[in-house]
From TrEMBL:
Pfam families: Epimerase. This is NAD-dependent epimerase/dehydratase family protein. Residues 6-211 form the NAD-dependent epimerase/dehydratase domain. It comes from Emticicia soli.
Length: 304
């Protein structure tokens, strides 16, 4: 029996590397670098599914030009989706983001939440989504747009890794007085969703939030990190008013703690995954806490 052939964009990224590691034996994966190969020259002959991971991530350093987001996240997606529609491939999966909906969540983010992104990153992702579903989907094709929250796992170099290094050095987490909850997504659960969408024909096309089942507080996150390092959990409960005052000074003096970073570290961002669970008809295989434990173990192994 021939393996399912997958055209994979963004293969050199964090999610792409984990996809290849998880499915290299199960699928025939053709990774392409869109830095070196134009969409026009990409051949989809014999391809069964397109998994489009390539994109420009949100630039926390704010050095990117606005047009870069639209060129990569919007125009590139348009071109590869048009290529898919003209091919014999039957499945198209594109990675979007919860940030295509909003940067700040009041309550819980669902697929019914009206999109109102404020950043060029979020706007470029939303435009790509709108283009994909602006055209009728042929009856022999299935099209999925996934909106993941913060993805973590082996090879992740984002904020979780930075926080892990703070805990590893024994530095107390100073924001324990802030009550918050946010959703995370284990790359293992994301790969499970990929597998289901590719191999099953009973899952309807559409937009799906993807998140682990349980939202966790940052204090719980610090505790899981400490346990993984066999360290005592160190959390300081500094008065929030004092912290906010320091953050305002940080804006002026360019300190490590400013108002934007404080907001990111203490915000509530809970993502509802009920829609994807309903169509999968089964739970995600990895619990929120277990997924984070695996990620922190991977962080520890990377340093050895």
């Amino acid at each position: 029996m021939n393996k399912i052939k997958i055209l994979l964009t963004g293969a050199s990224g964090f999610v792409g590397k984990n996809f290849i590691k998880a499915f290299s034996d199960e699928f025939s994966i053709e990774p392409i670098s869109l830095r070196n190969t134009s969409i026009e020259n990409t051949d989809l002959k014999g391809v069964n599914a397109v998994v489009h991971l390539a994109g420009k991530a949100h630039d926390l350093k704010k050095v990117s030009k606005p047009e870069d987001y639209y060129e990569i996240n919007t125009e590139l997606t348009r071109k590869i989706y048009d290529k898919f529609l003209a091919s014999d491939a039957s499945v198209f999966i594109a990675i979007s983001s919860v940030k295509a909906v909003t940067d700040k969540v009041t309550g819980t983010l669902t697929e019914e939440t009206r999109p109102d992104p404020k950043t060029h990153y979020g706007k470029s992702k939303l435009l790509a989504e709108e283009y994909i579903f602006s055209k009728p989907i042929p009856v022999n094709k299935r099209v999925y747009v996934l909106r993941p929250c913060m993805i973590h796992g082996e090879g992740n170099k984002g904020n979780l890794n930075l926080l892990y290094q703070i805990v590893k050095r024994g530095i107390p987490y100073p924001l324990g007085a802030f009550e918050n909850k946010r959703s995370f997504l284990s790359v293992g659960n994301l790969n499970f969703v990929f597998n289901q969408l590719i191999t099953r024909s009973d899952i309807p096309s559409g937009i799906y939030n993807v998140a682990d089942n349980e939202a966790l507080s940052t204090n719980t996150l610090i505790s899981i990190m400490s346990d993984s390092l066999n360290k005592k959990t160190k959390i300081s409960y500094v008065n929030p008013s004092l912290v906010r005052s320091i953050a305002k000074i940080g804006n002026i003096l360019h300190l490590p703690l400013n108002e934007e970073r404080l907001q990111k570290m203490t915000e509530n961002y809970v993502v509802d995954n009920a829609k994807i669970l309903k169509v999968l008809k089964q739970p995600l295989p990895i619990s929120s806490k277990e997924g984070l434990k695996r990620t922190f173990q991977a962080f520890a192994n990377e340093k050895k």
